[in-house]
Amino acid sequence: MRLTTTDDGSIVAFAAIMLVPLVLGVAIVVDSGRIWAERAALQNAVEVTAASAASTWIRTNTVCPAGVLSFLTIDDATPASHSCTTTGNSREGTITVSANDASPLFFSALLARSSANINASTTVKVGSAGSLVGVWPVALCESHPSILNWKNSGFSLTTNYTITLQTGPKNCGGNVGGNWGVLDFNGGANSTSETIAWVQNGYNDALDVGDTVFGSPGGLTSSIGIETMIGKTVLIALFDQALASGSNANYRITGFVRSVLIGARLTGAAASRSLTVRFETAIVDRPSASVGSGSNFGITTWAICAYDNKGAC
């Protein structure tokens, strides 16, 4: 009987000893799960806030107003403190939203640790559109006087510019005979019906800064339905290089500008054919655009570029 009692006591003592790491393990798992959930909520709130902050910054030139910061509490996030910082400006810069909180630890409090710090941050890059969907099949040299005036004014002019057929590519160093920056986006047979569809609706795939696009032979004529777009807004691709001629003509895309088509003259000698446009600013929210590294011609967009200071901005 004494041996049995001793054995029972040993088993109880052993079980008590083993219970300690088991309880600690449970505490770590439970508290870790809680920290993970609260950090995920905080990160999501910070992302939404940063995206809204970027869009608001572009539109109003204000940094993180109260209405934007209210998004920090979505998903039941409860940040104890936050910050909103910028670099550059609202047409070319970054905006970073950071927040932190102390997550209470229930079981780990047994080990004299009552809370854990959680942090989250998101950086958004603001700049020129690096790609666009819905671009018009008529391009313009970025060095054309109308574009330079528009850019140098800080996009404040409301001038109507009449751009003649022959001046387009010449400002970028090429005559590209038979073309006036009329683009053949897909390099195919380039039927008239295809070009008309692009005139009416824009190109349905993304056109990227840096792309080289072939020209459409035949130049600017009334056959592609341009007159039907008078009074409407179009997205015009800009190029900095025009090479070759005819079906071999090609244009290197460097940016985009939004324009209202005011008028068109598409008959008579090539030297007298023209489009009249008025440039406008535009803001493009994701996912229809990416942020480019080139010059801004009045179309500004944004994209998340870093989480917790990790990423290329």
Task: Please render the helix and strand layout as text.
Blueprint lengths: L1 H59 L5 H4 L11 E9 L2 E13 L10 E21 L4 E2 L3 H8 L7 E5 L2 H4 L12 E2 L7 H10 L1 E6 L3 E4 L17 E11 L6 E16 L8 E7 L1 E3 L4 E3 L7 E9 L6
Parallel strand pairs: 4-9, 12-14
Antiparallel strand pairs: 1-2, 2-3, 3-7, 3-13, 3-14, 5-11, 6-8, 8-10, 9-10, 10-11
Low-confidence stretches: 1-5
Structural class: alpha+beta
**Strand percentage:** 35-45%
* Whole-number tally of structural domains: 2
What is the share of helical residues? 25-40%
Order of helices and strands: HHEEEEHEHEHEEEEEEEE
Strand tally is 14
Number of helices: 5
- Overall geometry: elongated
Key features?
5 helices; 7-stranded mixed beta sheet; 2 domains; disordered N terminus; about 325 residues
What does it look like?
- This protein has 313 residues and is α+β, with helices and mostly antiparallel strands.
- The protein has 2 domains: 2-127; 131-304, no CATH class.
- 27% of the residues lie in helices and 35% in strands.
- The protein has helices at 2-60, 66-69, 145-152, 167-170, 192-201, and strands spanning 81-89, 92-104, 115-135, 140-141, 160-164, 183-184, 203-208, 212-215, 233-243, 250-265, 274-280, 282-284, 289-291, 299-307.
- Strands 1, 2, 3, 7, 12, 13 and 14 form a 7-stranded mixed beta sheet that branches.
- Mean pLDDT is 83; it is low at 1-5.
